[in-house]
Design a protein that fits this description.
Length: about 80
């Protein structure tokens, strides 16, 4: 059962919501390799397509810390404007 969650919202420039969502979602292979990340969702808002939410669920606080310093986070922060 997941015990720790994370929520990050991204606000894309006008017309760039889809591109930002795709760049975030491209990190999925890294997330899949993480043992402690139990759920990882990229959600684009219907009300505002330039707002993207990244929702993470982790098996522990330690798993969240590992994720936030891992390859998925590095890729997202390096490629998402």
């Amino acid at each position: 059962m997941s015990t720790t969650a994370g929520l990050i919202s991204f606000k894309a420039k006008p017309g760039k919501g889809e591109q930002v969502a795709e760049r975030i979602a491209a990190a999925l292979p890294h997330v899949s390799a993480e043992e402690g990340t139990t759920h990882w969702l990229v959600i684009r808002s219907d009300a505002d397509p330039e707002t993207i939410f990244l929702v993470d669920l982790f098996s522990s606080t330690h798993a969240r810390e590992v994720h936030m310093s891992g390859d998925a986070a590095k890729q997202i922060f390096a490629t998402v404007p």
